[in-house]
Amino acid sequence: MAEPLNFAVIPTNGRACFKDCLLAIEPQVDEVIVVESGCEPGKVAWVEHPWIQDPDLNISKWWNRGLEMAELLAKGAGAPQWNVAILNDDTIVPTGWMSAVTAAMRQESAAAACSGGTAVPHQTIHREPGPVGLMTRMKGFAFTLAGEKGIRANEQLRWYFSDDHVDWMARKLGGMVVIPGYNVEHLYPNGQVTPEMHQIIAEDGAAFTAYWGGMRPW
Fold first, then answer.
1. What is the CA radius of gyration of the chain?
2. Under 8 Å CB-to-CB from 97, ≥6 apart: which residues?
3. Measured between alpha carbons, how far is residue 107 from residues 97, 102, 104, 185 in Å?
4. What is the DSSP letter of 136?
5. Whether domain 5-211 has CATH 3.40.50.1450
6. Which end of the chain is more exposed for a tag (fewer CB within 10 A), N or C?
7. Model's pTM, two decimal places?
8. How confident is the model at residue 42 (pLDDT cuts 50, 70, 90)?
């Protein structure tokens, strides 16, 4: 069987850090899909990759738009399997990250994977939804999905808990793997949280808890 195609989805509002994020992942994938999320019109038009405009403040929606385009491109190329990296625009992945993370995901027949850097001493896989230790939760700023499994984010979760929902869905569809090493540089954790988002975060927490029968990730 041919190797799966590799895609990356990067939502961005045009921050300067986006260029470094893009340069780091470009050599590791077959195609990058950029979701232009509410920045000045045309600010990322210089990017020589497919890009989508979606101004709504909803990271789950941005991810889904990118995942849908990756699926169209993969199926158009006749690929039975494809890997999709979901990256924040302020992350810089190290060389070899995509191949290392997706190799572990495929070897475990898992649906999602990420790297844990030096904080994770050995490979770990979670196959059941539910809270786990912070170090082995899926890293929402940089993770991969097995595209053909059809995982989508819950668009009720507009900011926080969006990655936790994807993590738990992946566990139900085969598992979520965390590999040691391959530290991802995350430049501005929570750097875009505004007063408006604090209200959204509270609503997201309630929606997540209702969906998962009272469970929370932390």
1. 16
2. 28, 115, 142, 182, 184
3. 16, 8, 5, 25
4. G
5. no
6. N
7. 0.94
8. low
